[in-house]
Queue: 2 jobs
Job 1
Amino acid sequence: MKHRSFFWFMLPSALAMLVFIAAPIVSVLIQSVYAPHEQVIKVVESCSIFGCTESTTVDQDATSALRDAEPLGRFVGSQIYTDRNHLATEEIAVAWQEAEGFGDFFSKATNLPFYGAMSFTLTYTAVVTPMAIILGFFIALGVNGLPKLLRGPTIFFSLLPMIVTPLVGALILFWMIDSRGVLGVGLQNILGDPTLSLKASTPMMWVTLIVYGIWSSCPFAFVVYYAGLQTVPQDSIESAKLDGASRWQQTWHIVIPHLVPLTTFMALIKIMDNFRVFEPIVSFNAEAHAQSLSSFIYNDLSGETQLLSSAAATSVLTIIGVVILLSPVLVRTWRDYGNQR
Amino acid sequence: MSASIQDQKPLYLKVLINSFLVLWLLMAAFPFLWTAWGSFKVEADFFSKADWTNALTGVMTIAESGEYFTTDGYHGAWVQEEFWRAAMNTLIVVVATVCISLTFGTLGGYALARSAYRYAFWVLLIALVFRAMPPITLVSGYLLPFFELNMWGHLPTSIIVLVAINQPFTLWMLTSFFKNIPQELDESAMVDGCTRFQAFRRVIIPVMWPGVITTGLFSFLLAYNDFAVTAMLLNEENKTMVPKLAGFLGTTQTKGNVMFAVSSVVSITAPLFVLVMFFQRQIVSGLTAGAVKG
């Protein structure tokens, strides 16, 4: 295709992405080095018969005028990045010096909000991705063995956890595990502890969120593997059978190698999706026990006063995280492309 | 013929696999069925500390409303809290987002599929990075400019933002789809004297619908399921269903009207049920399109 027609065909899409994805990244970068204006203080001298006293008050008019004139705020450089709510360089340095051993340092660091959010996000991604893929694989094997008639309805119900709005899916589970919900009461009865509440403790909350994650993302793995299973070369299976390979050997030596390329693709998509985990934390009302990077930004933005600069700094750090996470893929794609030419 | 060789599974394996599948189906379907059933009960039944069978027998529902099922939750949400307004907004946002992103996406995807130059590859690579970014990171970049430009709070703003966030995925999907349409088709049209755009319009558009419908389904899901963008960029009156539901959690839970939220959850899920029922084949093929081809 000629450059000229490529340009015109691409223009609407490229423009949308430039204005609403690329420009906001720049906007976030700029915002993250500005802090809100401090209030303008004025000194008022009030005189009475006993003499004059000076008092300081907030000059509301001047403050709002300044804020209107320069909505970005004042330039502070990297100050927001290094403050306690983000990279917390000072606190980390102190913790490093005082910590007894690596475990102690780690627990001190994850008590800081940003590192806490980071550790949850990474744990979630690292646990949910492989678990969902494995579970999805077994479901696919199972459905593949079903008679044709039953496959359709099975696939229908299996798709639901993935298709349904994340906020809604998480809420449905949240209500069931509520201490008055059907699963919550069930657990209390099984464990014989009527005060048990999954919402009350941090480890329980993490486990619950991860279970939700696996529940909602294994259908994707299932569908991809199920489609992959339809394309397994039947003649290889036949000849393996003739050679006397057992069922396990067939699965292990023919089916699984056939599915490996799908697994890398799927892991990539799932890592991207899990890294942005957000809605379940809102649904589970879990901010006190677990924050992800996304929910951390959301909390800054949805408070009474929007902490734009703080949210912007976290966003920049998150975007850097995404690029680091993606870098192996980017490098590989880049190399593959180079080889093709 | 092949069945004769060795297709009979041993009994223990059959039992194991089928019980695993039944367990999974319970996990996948039960929460939805339970919530749909419970949305027609009163709170004391749906959240019953004393006896979970209350939700089935509806003791409190009969005591409070005199009927076995009650639609109080739906009435409260849709009429009293004006959930219908949110439903209308969702309809507008979703339809507009799907139409615009498919228009942009087909043009762009076609160009990317037919261009052999290096920049086409770069566009796709950048789109992949954009695809991986959490939408909420972008939202924090929108807020201040939108406030300053007086764009915040309106439906068109959210629509165009959702279109943009949708583009990377749409481009990837449609590019791989257009690559499967033989190049000779539009090239022969151009040999016959069509311009590139005429070839696209006369030859490609008539054959592109299966791919466009599949991509459209996923655009629909993205716009319909979005929370980050619509919650932060719409004002109270323009809220779509999902942020409206999140609002119920903050305010009505304290008033003891958690059933409003339960009924809106069911209302949001119902259209998705219907969607999956009708388009199951397309959804499955769309999910696997990128994967199976590699």
Job 2
Amino acid sequence: MNSIIRLTYRIIRSALDINTISFLILLPVGYLLIMGLMMGSIIHTFNYGGTNLSYVTFIAPGVVADQILMGGSMAGWVLWSDKRTGMLEQIFSMPFSRFEYQLSNLLAMILVTFGGALIMILVAIPFISLKITLFGFLLVFIFLVLGTLTFGSIMLALGATVRSNQVFNVISNVMFFVVTFTSSVFYPITSQTPGALATAAKLNPLTYVVDGIRSAFLNTTTAVDIYYIFILIITSAVFMEIASYTYKRIKLSATV
Amino acid sequence: MNSIEVRNLRVSYDGKKYVVDDLNFEVKEGEIFGFLGPNGAGKTTTIRVLTTLIRPTGGTVNVLGMDVTKYGLEIRKKIGVILQQPSYEWNLTVENNMLIYGTLWNIPRVEVKKKMEELISKFDLSEIRKTMAADISIGQRRRLQLVRELMHDSKLLFLDEPTIGLDPIARRSLLSYFKSLAKEGTTVFFTTHNLEEADFLCDRVGIINHGKLYAVDSVENLKASYEGERTIEVMVDKDPIKLVEKLKQKMDGGVVDPSTSLDRPIKIVTNKVPETMEIINDYIRQETSSLLWLNVKKTELEDVFFKVVGEHHNE
């Protein structure tokens, strides 16, 4: 069996217990049902790209995309858990490269993210007007993969760099908040959006993931969405390289 | 053939201070080599270089005939490593910890299960086999960590203070197992503070302190080189620190244990027993102190270690 598959199996089997995986999936489902439906009682419909949408239909792709942030922070959490239980140093002394460990961690998160997204789509079907095609499903998968590679790598680089779990948690929570609210998860980025927020949204890779998935859900994919894929290929390559660099320099325990 | 060859090894973490400085030694195939030294001596750093976890700052290191800086992955395929730091999959049972380790080593499932049953029975893990690793004691986790590493075959086994936290029965059972592995051709590189273990297990030992290797030889040769030496153990009822100071001032040669405390005899390794006894007598008379304990014995490995480390204590 391939090294990366063996390491991925280990992460799914041991680092992620059933409670963690359930939480990973149920929290966004809660977001979708509670926030989507509650906000939907205030904002009945609004115009998005020339189409009238219910708020829950608008928010559903955003919450699916937001799943990659959960996956990303889990990638960092797995790294910290492995540091804490000594497994990181042990694995590094086994016949695996550090890059293989990094890839397996990201692959595990892609599986969890995609599994969560599928469940959310199934949960959302009764509440939203979904027009997704088979090609749309493929695009959703591509956006989720690229998004997880980008944000997973950011969190892995963070996990490999900071010196305590507490610092990691604080930074990842702030990042989660900032990245979510400066993207198009909860509201569209339009000409009426304040300038600073619009700029932040443009610099935020999550915006491209959300918009791409939203287009796939509404079957309104255009060349712009394919352009977004190229942007995300570049961000994921850059952040994977940064994560790889930090892994090479990761501090093991301090014993002489 | 040598399993390990170390030439002029130097390691610095900050580019200023060398925690391992100009080490030279080799370990023969099938040998059990003990690496002894006090805390912070450089043992773990050396193991980290040998197991390719960190790169040396200088020198050359070959493990199983391969350069550690070029063939890290190839070396790691052939070695087993038990690190000083505990490691375990906290939310898996003891049994699943072993199974997943077998999977990581790509051992066929049938073989993994067979080996697991053999090790569980041999190392008395039956009672806790279904218990989560997070719920077992520290000693049991250590045993799991050790046993798990025996799931796969290795040509060279690195053991960094492997018996810390183990009860005497588990300790003896593991040491005997390592001995049997060496008889079958596995080379063992072993670091410990416990000199009794080194005496029991090792064919040769190296004594390291402050990153420098001060002695490398067989246990017998090291003991023989201190044949004329004797170890004096003495306890007095008043101010033993003062006695230590007096001994250090007045003794010509020899070493006094620098880590003396009230509840432990002062240990002196010397080849001038009558002169040393005279110093002790003078102290007792002058300080009106009473002698609580006195013992003079032949030098053991522990005393050799103590003397080598003590001689270079202030370097």
